[in-house]
Amino acid sequence: MATRVRPSSKRCAVIGGSGFLGRHLVERLVDKGYSVAVFDIRQSYELPGVTFHQGDLCDKQALLTALKDVSLVFHCASPAPFSDDRALFQRVNVEGTRTVIQACQEAGVQKLVLTSSASVVFEGTDIKNGKEDLPYAKKPIDYYTETKIQQEKLVLEACSKEKGFFTVAIRPHGIFGPRDPQLVPILVDSARQGKMKFIIGDGSNLVDFTFVENVVHGHILAAEHLKPDSPLCGKAYHITNDEPIRFWDFMSQVLVGLGYDAPRYHLPYTLVYGIALLLWLLTVLLRPLVTIKPTFTPMRVALAGTYHYYSCARAKQDMGYKPLVSLQEAITRTVASYPHLRKGS
Ligand SMILES: NC(=O)C1=CN([C@@H]2O[C@H](COP(=O)(O)OP(=O)(O)OC[C@H]3O[C@@H](n4cnc5c(N)ncnc54)[C@H](OP(=O)(O)O)[C@@H]3O)[C@@H](O)[C@H]2O)C=CC1
Ligand SMILES: CC(C)CCC[C@@H](C)[C@H]1CC[C@H]2C3=C(CC[C@]12C)[C@@]1(C)CCC(=O)C[C@@H]1CC3
């Protein structure tokens, strides 16, 4: 009878390993002595100790090649959240994740760590110190979040002691750091267009922004604590910097750090939200004729004008999580990493 060779626990795969979070995760795993297989639709770098497998995660055969001899899989691939392509989110985040689960089970993978999002419980209204037992959003803020909810459910439901397949979901919020392609670049682009003069609402709303290295730390701790009978099995965990900050203070610190003025003038939240909604309707109506990409979408206005910060007490208790980098240090390091986005450069 053929015996199955138990894959090495230091061999893992990162699906989405060419992306912002994925690459930081891969770099840390290599530092910790893991050998890593990256599976991604694109290859964006080369690194000793890392093998690249280019492919679409909806393709099970391609996944099976990358998952050979792998015991641990991190799944952090997703289409960009600001894409408007509902069919793409459905195909990659839902159908693709189903395929990832099947491929993991067929390849004999023991642990799957999903990058979910704290936004799975956000409906555009205030969340203060939200815990993981909040219900999933009934009206998610966009298609991206709608499919992140379905994806998280699929992964957590697949956790099975009988099959020897253990799953956990990490829910980060507002990831930022060096090489982030969205938060800082969008902010600077808006400032360069003169659109960052206004504070939406009274500016007191607290939110979580989480440094990418802390998010990586949470993922690796989750993987290392995920064992049969551990409390992590089939559960979701918020990973944040544990230092909620006023949304507009965070934006101002990044902008001022890069040489731009901080927003100063207040606008009522409902007015801006209403205008953003009208603009969005207009873009939908005009879509057959022209493509418009407004800076202030209803989703961004909701994120900019409400409280949304989360408790990471469960991660502290079950996996000993503690942020490694403080928010101030993280902002300083992030600002320093974007010399090309400084005013005047
Ligand atoms: N950034 C944030 O603030 C937050 C992110 N998250 C989650 O974290 C994860 C990582 O996000 P982030 O690093 O910011 O995103 P990125 O877009 O930087 O990384 C995602 C990677 O997945 C790749 N990818 C997309 N579709 C496929 C596919 N069909 N098959 C294989 N690879 C694919 C992307 O390629 P390509 O670029 O070509 O599309 C990209 O390389 C995502 O799951 C996201 O939902 C959660 C909370 C907050
Ligand atoms: C133009 C300005 C009013 C705002 C610019 C900053 C925004 C680009 C970011 C502020 C909060 C961020 C955020 C995400 C993306 C970038 C921001 C909107 C996510 C939507 C990314 C994907 C997630 O899973 C949730 C994030 C919430 C916070």
UniProtKB/TrEMBL annotation:
EC number per UniProt: 1.1.1.170
A GO MF label: 3-beta-hydroxysteroid dehydrogenase [NAD(P)+]/C4-decarboxylase activity
Region forming the signal peptide: none
Pathway: Steroid biosynthesis; zymosterol biosynthesis; zymosterol from lanosterol: step 4/6
Reactions the enzyme catalyzes: 4alpha-carboxy-4beta-methyl-5alpha-cholest-8-en-3beta-ol + NADP(+) = 4alpha-methyl-5alpha-cholest-8-en-3-one + CO2 + NADPH; 4alpha-carboxy-5alpha-cholest-8-ene-3beta-ol + NADP(+) = 5alpha-cholest-8-en-3-one + CO2 + NADPH; a 3beta-hydroxysteroid-4alpha-carboxylate + NAD(+) = a 3-oxosteroid + CO2 + NADH; 4beta-methylzymosterol-4alpha-carboxylate + NADP(+) = 3-dehydro-4-methylzymosterol + CO2 + NADPH
SUPFAM superfamilies the record matches: NAD(P)-binding Rossmann-fold domains
Membrane-crossing segments per the record: 271-290
Membrane topology: Single-pass membrane protein
Residue ranges constituting the 3-beta hydroxysteroid dehydrogenase/isomerase domain according to the UniProt record: 13-267
Location(s) in or outside the cell: Endoplasmic reticulum membrane; Lipid droplet
One of the record's GO cellular component terms: endoplasmic reticulum membrane
GO BP, sorted A to Z: cholesterol biosynthetic process
Keywords assigned: Acetylation, Cholesterol biosynthesis, Cholesterol metabolism, Endoplasmic reticulum, Lipid biosynthesis, Lipid droplet, Lipid metabolism, Membrane, NAD, Oxidoreductase, Steroid biosynthesis, Steroid metabolism, Sterol biosynthesis, Sterol metabolism, Transmembrane, Transmembrane helix
Domain of life per record: Eukaryota
Pfam families the UniProt entry points to: 3Beta_HSD
InterPro entries, per the entry: 3Beta_OHSteriod_DH/Estase (IPR002225), Lipid_A_modif_metabolic_enz (IPR050177), NAD(P)-bd_dom_sf (IPR036291)
Subunit structure: Homodimer.
Family statement drawn from the similarity comment of this UniProt entry: Belongs to the 3-beta-HSD family.
Name the UniProt record assigns to this protein: Sterol-4-alpha-carboxylate 3-dehydrogenase, decarboxylating
Organism annotation: Pygocentrus nattereri
